Amino acid sequence: MTVKAIAIIGHHDAGKTTFLTRLIPALTARDYRVGCVKHVAPDVELDTPGKDSYLLAKAGAKRTLVYSDVRGALLWDHPGEPVDMVLARHFSDLDLILLEGFKDADLPKIEVYSSGEPLAGRIPVLAVVASGSPRVPDGVPVLPPDPDIVADFLEAEVL
Question: Deepest of 31, 48, 51, 57, by most Cβ within 10 A of its Cβ?
């Protein structure tokens, strides 16, 4: 099964997370099952130091699953495994995966733009989401930051 994924990229503080928190409900209202992946720096600790799951991982467990009756999180160390392999293994049952960041990944991208020099032009993007009219290469659509309009675009171009 081919995993449908799109990276939402942009400069620091461009509003990527804020926009995703508006886009996800627009897509789920259309009955799409959406997953999310957030890119973080390698030194970010994903588990709380001192908690049992942290101690088990630090003791050498290759995978640690934090599990309750309503939520779970799987933590593991990997030697730079490509994100597309992880998506295929853990997200293949979903209709769309939205990745925040991953501007260097070999995935289709949409830029959330707020200021500065747009990434579009240096990085290939399907579209730019912006309130104004940033200078982007010819043929790259600029969409308003309206989650329903972006959801329409994703339905036409990705889904």
Answer: 57
Phi, psi of 154 (to 5 degrees): -65, -40
Structure tokens at 154: 């994703």
The Cα 52–Cα 62 span in angstroms is 15
> 5 and 90 in contact (C-beta within 8 Å)?
no
Which amino acid, one-letter code, is at 33?
R
Other beta carbons within 10 Å of 9: 26
**What does each C-alpha distance from 47 to 3, 53, 61, 68, 127 come to in angstroms?**
27, 7, 13, 15, 35
Asked if residue 95 lies in contact with residue 33, where contact means CB atoms within 8 angstroms, the answer is yes
Question: The tokens 């003791």 sit on which residue?
Answer: 59
d(CA 74, CA 65): 4
State the pLDDT at residue 143.
Answer: 96
State how far the Cα of 63 lies from the Cα of 73, in Å rounded to an integer.
Answer: 10
pLDDT digit string (tens) for 127-146?
999 998 888 988 899 999 99
- The whole-model pTM stands at 0.85
What's the fold here for domain 5-43+82-157?
Rossmann fold (3.40.50)
